[in-house]
Design a protein that fits this description.
Aspartate Aminotransferase, domain 1; 4-stranded antiparallel β-sheet; 2 domains; Aspartate Aminotransferase, domain 2; 7-stranded mixed β-sheet; alpha/beta; 360 residues
């Protein structure tokens, strides 16, 4: 007889994060996952490989990842006591949600936002409340979010800035007001390297004492294949979040790559500048073509084809080997497009124009 296995109701009701491979033709431009179009430089790869060969693979990584935390702290201008590292930034976001909202607390989300957040909240045992973004620019409804916190003083806001998938940022002054109202504010800044300097929430970590910022080396540093994320938090909060992170969670290879990338950040900075310049060029072309594009501060943009038909446009692009993301489930009529190399972006623009003409 089959046993009734106890599964938490919120987990059973959850739709798992899943991907459907869509590559019926050779891929000419992969612009669907916000990955960097550039790889880690060969020189850094060789340096990492050499260091790994000199390590004893039979031993666990350093307990507490002190060397990696020091490297991140130096890069971010913080102290090692403020740094937590994770197997991708999602791991440290989950740890923070578990600590601050787990077991029945409430997480405030601002949809459309990163689709993994509801899954992380469910795993943590947290409830979700939503304050949707507003307008064609998908701006934060600042007053509504503040009102939601005042109505539920224990609610924990999780703000993605730059926001995935829409690309907008949260004003630092608003985050300061939010920190005054909420017990703690979580700010996911995976894409902040592509945004203006004033978008950084790091100054609020010290200023407010209840702001936690999440970052990653996946995007600007081209290291998505090695899961390296981190949080910056006041030392007392970092201590508590750390209790929800398993030991030895960052492996030897990821640690060595992260340290090497942070030792020599110039290549990453140069490529970020190229991506930002390409982002602005492509957006200008799209707007001239009649498309609606939300303000973008990441390595991607959120576009509505002129005349609608986003799904038809995406399908037509797919047939031509150009992969983009359809966000119809959370923002009907919009496509999220990652910024590629110049030749990939030119191909996207040409095929986008053809696809729009076919769909209208």
């Amino acid at each position: 007889m089959k046993k009734d296995v106890p599964v938490r109701p919120e987990i059973r009701a959850l739709r798992p994060y899943s991907l459907v491979p869509e590559t019926p033709v050779p891929v000419k431009a992969k612009l669907d996952f916000n990955e960097s179009p550039y790889d880690v430089p060969d020189e850094i790869k060789r340096r990492v490989a050499s260091r790994l060969l000199a390590r004893r693979w039979a031993l666990y990584p350093e307990f507490g990842a002190g060397r990696l935390r020091r490297a991140i702290a130096t890069s971010a201008g913080r102290s090692p006591e403020e740094i937590l590292v994770g197997n991708g930034s999602g791991e440290v976001v989950l740890a923070a949600l578990s600590v601050f909202a787990g077991g029945g607390g409430t997480v405030l989300l601002t949809p459309p936002t990163f689709s993994l957040y509801p899954q992380l909240a469910a795993i943590a045992g947290a409830r979700i409340a939503e304050v949707p973004l507003v307008g064609d620019d998908f701006a934060l409804d600042e007053e509504a979010l503040l009102a939601a916190v005042r109505a539920n003083p224990r609610a924990i806001p999780l703000v993605c800035s730059p926001n995935n998938p829409t690309g907008g940022t949260a004003r630092r002054e608003f985050l300061r007001r939010l920190a005054d109202a909420a017990p703690v504010v979580l700010v996911d800044q995976a894409y902040v390297d592509f945004a203006p300097g004033e978008a950084s929430a790091l100054p609020l970590v010290s200023e407010c004492g209840n702001v936690v910022v999440f970052r990653t080396l996946s995007k600007a540093f081209s290291a998505a294949g090695f899961r390296i994320g981190y949080a910056v938090a006041p030392p007392d909060l970092a201590h508590e979040i750390g209790k929800a992170i398993l030991p030895f969670n960052v492996d030897l290879a990821s640690e060595e790559l992260a340290v090497a990338l942070l030792e020599d950040p110039a290549p990453a900075r140069a490529r970020v500048a190229e991506i930002v310049a390409e982002r602005e060029r492509v957006i200008e072309r799209l707007r001239a073509f009649g498309a609606k594009v939300a303000p973008a501060a990441g390595n991607f943009f959120f576009v509505a084809p002129p005349g609608g038909g986003a799904e038809a446009v995406r399908t037509a692009l797919l047939r031509r080997g150009v992969l983009v993301r359809d966000l119809g489930g959370s923002a009907p009529g919009r496509l999220r497009v990652s910024v590629g190399r110049r030749e990939e972006n030119d191909l996207f623009l040409a095929e986008f124009s053809r696809a729009v003409k076919e769909a209208t």
